Task: structure prediction
Amino acid sequence: MSTVSDYFGSQVFDDRVMRANLSADVYASLRKTIDEGKELDIGVANAVAEAMKNWAVSKGATHFTHWFQPLTGITAEKHDSFISPAPDGSVIMEFNGKELIKGEPDASSFPSGGLRATFEARGYTAWDPTSYAFIKGKTLCIPTAFCSYGGHALDKKTPLLRSMEALSREALRILRLFGNDKAKRVVSSVGPEQEYFLITKEMYDQRPDLRFTGRTLFGAKPPKGQELDDHYFGVIKPGVAAFMEDLNDELWKLGILAKTEHNEVAPAQHELAPIYSTTNVATDHNQLMMEIMQKVAAKHGLVCLLHEKPFAGVNGSGKHNNWSIATDNGQNLLSPGDTPYENAQFLLFLCAVIKAVDDYQDLLRISVATAGNDHRLGANEAPPAVISIFLGDELNAVLHAIETDTPYNGTEKMQMRLGADVLPKFNRDTTDRNRTSPFAFTGNKFEFRMLGSSNSIACANIMLNSAVAESLRIYADRLENADDFETALHEMIKKTIKDHKRIIFNGNGYDDAWIKEATEKRGLLNYRTTADCMPHLLDEKNVKMLTSLGVFTEDELKSRRDIMLENYCKTVLIEANTMINMVHKRIAPAITRFTSDLSEEAYSKKKMFPELECCYETELVKKLSELTDSITHKTDELEKAVCDLKDAGDIIEESELIRDTVLPKMSELRIPCDRAELLTAKSYWPFPTYGDILFSVK
Ligand code: ADP
Ligand code: MG
Result:
């Protein structure tokens, strides 16, 4: 038996492999590229490519691909084989630096939001040496960014790398002011906790809604759901345990630090959390993890559902984005330190985050907006669509003391003079009790809890990194020109607390009273849907911040808004059409079959026993016939709403119609259908029920 440490990362061209297979010079220049972003010359690239190929071929690989993340939200790859003809009729395996650095997938069908005219359809992919290459199946996968020839980003990785760069640049300015001249880079790290559902393939195959849309569009509540909370952290069933074991093996081979797994709140719902890593690596790994979950599930006769809301009335799935920033020598900048000076620095970074989240609530909301996630946010199971920060009582009291120049009432009374006093030691446990907050400080990191389970984490981290970089830039501009650093620092922290304390909320985020207070008293934003928030991506302040930091160009932002809205509209439209189809082809005929059998039964009984009333049959036929009428009307209305979409002038108008007419009609149609499901005999109903599906894995 081999142990995990024997095969961990065995499919990754990681530091160990590089060191073993590259000459000292080549290794040193590649490391400089990876660690400091230094440009790579073609000689080095050729040597790296050769070593990479030899390593991959020795592991059975025959192909290579530039692996990238287009705006569809999933990953893309086009495989080329290593083979190259030799004069004697045989083949040799070849791969050079040029092929490693740059690729040209014929990727004209990926969404570009108008950034790439079809006559120059080819975008190009460029190697991201900061994320290790790996082997999947028989293919060497090279993580890359994807751009148009005009230089516009057509993917999620490019702006993510740019946002990391901006954050590093601005954070270093602050560190220099605090006398740190050692740090070369500041990096943001993320540990994304991934939720998912597991059901059997047998159930999945019988549900057109799951197959076409990833979620159920019909389905009455089962007699037993999550009421008893008996699934959360409960014993893992053998079928699930076997899946998890296999999944861990596959992830470990790819160097993905899968760490904890447990059952979640809903039946059939589970969670997998990796150990955190640099944001772009964490993003690549999360994409890979989602892909591998589905592959491993298939091997076990299961299907892994990553949709945010596969079942109505049952908790949906999200992703917790644990985020922190640290120097390249490992100092976590969100960790309260031991000396007064470290404390002041910590408070400044903390304030930068508070200011960022308040100033760019809209961008954070936008970064998690999809048709699927709209079903979760604000539905009493996930954080509300209103963004706020949880700091915990202790830290809150410290900020209050600074703001009001009053003594901090911790263990002992003390004045909070920055740079002079040591912060009290927080009990880390007390900072992580509030699970209802969308953005919680958990001791040395923030946990952004609004992401949907299928979201790429790139989007949230692009906005988070950028918004914090912007706060730091403003701080650095002021502090670099201050006459007296400590006074300026103190005043700035005080001002941030005063100006932005409205975003801090330590209470219950699921409470309706909070939404009222947040929106009416505090003036916080509450964008309930994708259609509500997405147009604000182009608000002047947002464009200004993102372009001036070099994260996006204005054209890129416009294209992204359009693509996200198109995606929203298309997703809902597919759902609406699936519903209409399921009603006409399956639900209505099933009810008709059942009622006609019931009527026949009543008719023949009455013939035999004229005195009988046949209440069961006649009442049921009546109820179901009324429901069928209602189903027919509602289906007609939904069809009309879909048809009216063609009158929309542009994508914004279309998304508003989707929000205001199509989605409400879908909800209305579902009601009589679910009621009919409850009244129809099981043998007649054309789909497995929620009970069947949710308890399908043994
Ligand atoms: P829980 O949220 O269940 O209490 P933890 O707080 O231990 O669990 O960690 C949750 C996730 O946060 C894990 O993926 C972990 O690796 C990650 N994490 C821990 N520390 C940091 C950090 N400094 N920066 C980013 N992520 C972190
Ligand atoms: Mg957590």
Observations:
- Residues 4-155 form a domain with the Ubiquitin-like (UB roll) fold (CATH 3.10.20.70).
- The chain is about 50% helix and 15% strand.
- Residues 196 and 413 are 47 Å apart (CA to CA).
- The mean pLDDT is 91.
